[in-house]
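Input for the complex:
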Amino acid sequence: MKDKLVIAMPKGRIMEEALEIWMKAGLPLPNDLEDSRKLILSIEEYNMEWILAKPMDVPTYVEYGVADIGIVGKDVLMEANREVYELLDLKISPCRLSVAGPPDVKPQQGFSKIASKYPHVAEKYFREQGQQVEVIQLHGSVELGPIVHLADRIVDIVSTGRTLKENGLVEMETIAQITTRLIANQVSYRMKNERINALIEQLSRVLAENEG
Amino acid sequence: MGKIKPFEKPVGFRDLLTEMTAKKRAVEGHLQQLFQSWGYEEILTPTLEFDETIGKASAISSGKMFKLQDRLGHTLVLKPDMTAPIARVVSSILKDHPVPVRLSYHTNVFRAQENEAGRASELYQSGVELIGEGTPDGDAEVIALAIESLKQLQLNDFQLVVGHTSFLYGILADWVEEKDQQEELISDLSCKNMVGFKQKIEKWVTDREGQQSLLTFAHLQGDIRVLDQAKAIAKSERAKQAIEDLYQVWKLIKIYGLESYITFDLTLVPHMEYYTGMVFVGTVKGIGFPVCGGGRYDSLLDAFGNPQAAIGFAIHLDRILEGSKIEAPRKRKVKVIYDQEHREEALHYVLTRRNEQNISIETQRYTGKNVDYEIDMVNEQGKEIIWFIERGESQNEG
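Predicted:
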């Protein structure tokens, strides 16, 4: 009896896109995928289990090894700063982690205020730029920050830039290019190496086809 | 920050209750017995060291150390690992001791944790250091002892993954000149970001052979066959020598009969920067973090003016205590309850019985209020109760 492979999936948009690649690779889906109340789905015949988690929590489940592998955005990985192996770029949900603000925002003399869902990334970025800022953590609708004068600028993910535009903000600097990654627990990567590598190979094949 | 409540402890510090403490002692006992049988003698070093010396020599980053000041204004650190203090001891007090020196330890080490409130800042480690033995035989001895230790601990399936920093740095230096680029590649390898690694190789390495070599290198994980592949792409003497060493180590491990526990990963990046040769980590099925790590650190002793080859490993006890099937030796638990009239008789009885092997006897003065209550309570704890009181009935009940 082989060991069960546990996968942390991020509930939401990324998961939908990941599932397309997953299905193209001929990998099995759980029967009760449509049952939205379930948090754990199992695929008995493949000895696999899915944990449906909040995207921000995926690296945590994987770092502690309760999930062997996980699917998660690079933005979350950068913010969570967990000790996990980053095995594959699934190249889905591409976007940028950027600094944005009102077009007329002036470089501040003293303390600039930055609103963000990614306080660690923001803090690190500005520190490395030699800028002193105060980072204010918000949990959503970060664009509100500059509008209500809570902050001068924001750090957030930008894909089409439409949301920014609608709120009168412009993208100023790109911190990082973001795509979705397959991550693994460092011990599972060793102990379940064959299964994980087989999975990566199957997924890579689809990715190569998509590109070609 | 509110007022500290009376029961609070500093973040990351915890009490180890009786059961775990007994288990920890048993585990350390088993390990020390094993270390001893391989010629490793136990040593203790101070909890506080100078930041100037141990703090600097240690591979733990300065920000992760607990610091305080002594009365003269020197900065002190709570010992962040055991390797640097042992290097200090071997380079000073034991300087004239004939090499190789074999030392073992069971200690707590301290790391300030930034990430998470609940993570332990005080860690328990057991390990060994072998100083003055620069041969592959020394490498193999320490690997073999690490495997025997994990066997001893009665854990689930485990594995030791072996790499070599000279090969790792050697092959990168063969094809990538820029120090910064080398560091970025190392950082990709340390989180197994093979995609990032390959992209950078394709961008930075223009030489066709170099690209091929490094792309092959990225896959050098698996059984003994990866050494053959590694040999084929090794260019510099440094990289070639590393592979020769690993072949030797493999041969020796086979003599020890432990080859089934070993796999190779030549892309393995150790957590500690001071490693200079063979490195390894141990993983156990079902435990999310590596349970042991070690390797060769031939240049660390330079920092103490005593250039010597050195190699060692540490087992992270915190991570295995729960999973280990080792049990603290079972004790027969007895409780003697006596009243004033039988006090002398009871205490004499207790003193005699305390000479027995594996016994734990406690006494309690009977006050007349707590008999029935005691029967229930102590029985639950699996204790035999012996009465020394006047009750008109038989004296021994329980």
